[in-house]
Amino acid sequence: MHDMALPSFRPRPPWWGGDLQTIRNAVLKDHADLDMWPGSRMTFVAENGDHLSGVLHQATESRNAIVVLLHGLTGCEDSAYVRASARHLLHDGFDVFRLNMRGAGPSRAACRTMYHAGRTEDLDLALRALLGQGLGSNGMFAMGYSLGGNQLLKYLGETGPDALIARAISVSAPLDLAAASARLENNRNRVYHRWLLDRMKQDWQAGPLDIGATQSEVLKNALTIRAFDDGVVAPLNGFSDAADYYARNASGRFLTEIGVPTLLLHGNNDPWIPVAPYRDVRPLPDHVRIEIASGGGHVGFHGRSGRWHDQCASVFFGLTT
């Protein structure tokens, strides 16, 4: 696992530095064309009646292996990085499922509750639905970005060797949720922080919600993501406060229990997610590898020959197909 040769990251000009790598997805809005692989929508029902959904694409010359893509905070199936990975993997012969976490994107109108960093039961529900359709006979893989990466790693730690996923990759996942929240509140990140908080509020208010008056007031008036998590996300999901929510769902504490080959990708200049937790976590199982790139920003990794994390996925997932 640790001697597996991965491509090296070299930034694509003019996207130098962590901030430009990070904002490129939003600035260019280059949504990858997936018309060669028409998608079909799949829907599955959670225990409380919420309808989750995603889009399935099947490769032209399929390996009969499928990769589930799990977006980050305020993202959805149509996030630029999700579509780019989907196109890359479909070209490689992998089937792809672009999953919306609960209440994200097209699923918003059909959900009265919302996803959070640790709601792993929804990923399990989606995986079982895909397996029930006979998909992934040569392997069920997953790649999660940022908050989706945290959720994926937590799921793998909870399920150990019984995970329904054979191999997994996280991209820019916040191993320490409290540290990531604090980093976003740094003065140098005030624009990012405001942008994310505004999008969180918009997403939560875009459809029906099972929410009390107190939480509704916080939802409208919270000035920080931590305040939002403290007054809305935590109480609505059985956590005592933001600190409890962060501590119980931070993926770093689940890494030692992961039972399948897993690759964690991160950039040393990510402006949102501190790199220290990646360097501090030890020991790890032999089948879990951390790769810290010199550059890449947050879910950026725009390299001279494509997106580095997608190139790593071709190597890592291709080992078993």
Briefly say what this structure is.
The chain is an alpha/beta fold.
CATH superfamily of the largest domain: Alpha/Beta hydrolase fold, catalytic domain
The percent range for strand residues is 15-25%
Mean pLDDT: 96
Instruction: State the low-pLDDT regions, or none.
Output: none
Number of helix segments?
11
Rg = 18 Å
Can you describe what's shown?
- The protein has 321 residues and is of the alpha/beta class.
- The chain folds into 2 domains: 223 residues, 3-Layer(aba) Sandwich (Rossmann fold), CATH 3.40.50.1820; 73 residues, no CATH class.
- Helices cover 37% and strands 16% of the residues.
- The chain is built from 11 helices and 10 strands.
- The strands form 2 sheets. An 8-stranded mixed sheet has the order 1-2-4-3-5-6-7-8, with helices on both faces. Strands 9-10 form a two-stranded antiparallel ribbon.
- The longest helix is centred in the middle third of the chain and has 15 residues.
- The chain is globular.
- The two termini are 16 Å apart.
- The model has no long low-confidence stretch (mean pLDDT 96).
Question: What features would you highlight for this structure?
Answer:
2 domains; Rossmann fold; globular; 321 residues; two-stranded antiparallel sheet; alpha/beta; 37% helix
